[in-house]
Please model this.
Amino acid sequence: MRNAIVVAAAFAATLSTLAVTKDAHATNYSLWIHGRDSAGTPSGFSYWSHSGWANGGVQAGVNAVAVNYDGTQHIANTNSVIVNALNTYCTGANSCYIACHSAGCPQLAYAYAYHKGAWNVIWVLAGGDAEGGSELANAGSWLTGLAIDSDLHTSTMRGMMNHDIVGDDIEGWMYSYMGGDWSSLTNLFFPCNSSFLGIWYSWAANDSVIAFHSSGRYRNSGGYQSDGDTNYQGTGGNGTWWDWTDALWVDANNGVAGHCINGGFLGSCQEGTSGGVMGVVSGTMAGYAK
Model:
């Protein structure tokens, strides 16, 4: 049954209840599910390491576990790694907090859609969530030759699974962390938002890799410039967002935190906050995953 405290409507109340767990859970773990990685399978917390993060980006949250899979391959071919981690750390008397980045978030959604187990997941912090795919993959997957990039096409990713299941089945919420960008040349690839006399001049808000329609877990793609989601509690495949989505952190200034952890496209997708949007997630994990 969903924890009534965790699903409190007010934003301030949400922050104060992130650390709430069920007394019956003997041990809590913090799982970190990484995204696309052109180098293959990361070692330890190497994907997450950043000097500007809480704990240097390493082991933020109680009993932190890096869930490492081959970040170049199809989700269907690597999802067993995520399933095994959930079976190992999130069953029986144990429970989990989960942080996911980019393609790591659809990895989690895919596990729930096709391999659902008796998992005790308290809440999920999703930074730069790629569940809606990326327009960059639409345009450039043929250049990279990576299997994961063909999965990340917007139409492919949206049709890959029932994205409502993960929100319906975890104890709390799918908390979206939506980064922004203001200088990256990749803006040209994202859906348009505004036009004048038939000429488009404003692109959808994005973190330089993922548009808001994806990072905000919108049910439909589009040129969104903001996210008015306040604790969307809908179930049964209705509403603007996928079930049990809460836009907990939105880069309304469009440049506070971008997508990338280290480096990025022309150095532009980790603007502002050190380490990008996952730097914000890391702070929340360190403070509330207890």
Notes: The chain has nine helices and eight strands. The chain has a mean pLDDT of 81.
